[in-house]
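DATA SHEET
Item: assembly model
Revision: 1
Owner: S.N.
Input lines:
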Amino acid sequence: MSESAIITTHNVHLWYNEKRALESVSIKIPRNKVTALIGPSGCGKSTLLRCFNRLNDLIDHVKITGEITLDDKNIQESGTDVVMLRKKVGMVFQKPNPFPKSIYENVAYGPRIHGINDRSMLDTIIERSLRHAAIWEEVKDRLDDSALGLSGGQQQRLCIARTLAVEPEVILMDEPCSALDPIATAKIENLIDSLKKDYTVVIVTHNMQQAARVSDYTGFMYLGKLIECGKTVQIFEHPQEELTENYITGRFG
Amino acid sequence: MTDKFHTELKNLKAETLEMAHLGRYMLRTAVDALIRQDNELAASVIARKEKIHEMEVRIEEHCYHLIALNQPMAKDMRTIACTLKVITASLRIGRYGKVIANIVEKISDQPHLANLMTIPHMADLVTGMIDDSIEAYEKDSVAAISDFSLRDDTIDSLRQSIFREGITYMMEDPKSITRCTNYILVARYLERCADHACKIAENVHYMNTGERIEIH
């Protein structure tokens, strides 16, 4: 990858207890691009994604070795401010998980934690975030309604707006569309495409067609290893590795 | 589901091979009919025109169905892309066979001039190239097509020599003009068929390696 990398991992190994989940993963995530991670269930793609904002810290008996840098700073170091790291590296999950609060408060939550309480400033941030997440027009007249009353696709875009409100540099998405219908999926995919102007997106997906549609780069993982990573067009037209070829053409197992 | 898709892909290749062999058969048989001045044989080639057209339409639709329903990737995608090119080339080869068969009827009332010059030899070389390109598609192998550039040069030289030779006969005797003009046309059609064999070869190369080449 010739573009400048925002996240780089070097020789990362990860164990859950005795079980090795990642083996010698070295990858560069290019800035302002969409990178997709694909691979069969249990191959380590979600684990790798969670390394980028140290979400694996929350799991007991995890051991990580190797180097993970964000903007050339090693985030594995003990002095790393994890709250600041997760502000810079936001995350969106498979199932939309809005707080049981109003639409407004969902998006205001992050900025408030980071000390912003001025109402007009919050209003600005919330409108900008909701616009950026392509949901403003649908909710602008009912910001005080409960977020739980939104449809699944709207809830997911609200969660993206919540992530954007703290102005991250990177957005991690773990299967962001697998709980959504095709129309809501298309909206999220369009949104991903527009987000890369301002952010770097890393998306984990089971859906290879989705990876092919939305990403600029694709990494294929298998049994904890990064088998191949390159331009999406190349991975889907003529991958270099036989394993990748077998996986994407469904000749696996 | 992917097993079903890969079985369908195999069937697609089998149908395509059948069509490629029909195109090749039409060309070869038309040249044989020309050599033997056999109008009946020529008519049998013309009668196959509809069949090869139908096959082309059917296989093309089959390709589109497979793409729409399975979103093929990597070599599966390249195989379908290559197949679409192979059927176009095969249709053209078959149609040149039909055009040559039409010529047989036009000039069968007069004996051949100069043993058809080098047309029989040229036809052997061209059908050899078509055979090898079809075999490469069938066996997923680029071995048989590695020398296509050289072979295509030979075909081009033969076409030119037939053209020059034809001109000399026509200058000597105006009664030879009809026959010689048709010989020159046949040489031109054969040369186009070799180009189509090269097109198949280029696409088989892409199918197998993912890299594009150009055979001049």
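QC remark: The mean pLDDT of chain A is 94.
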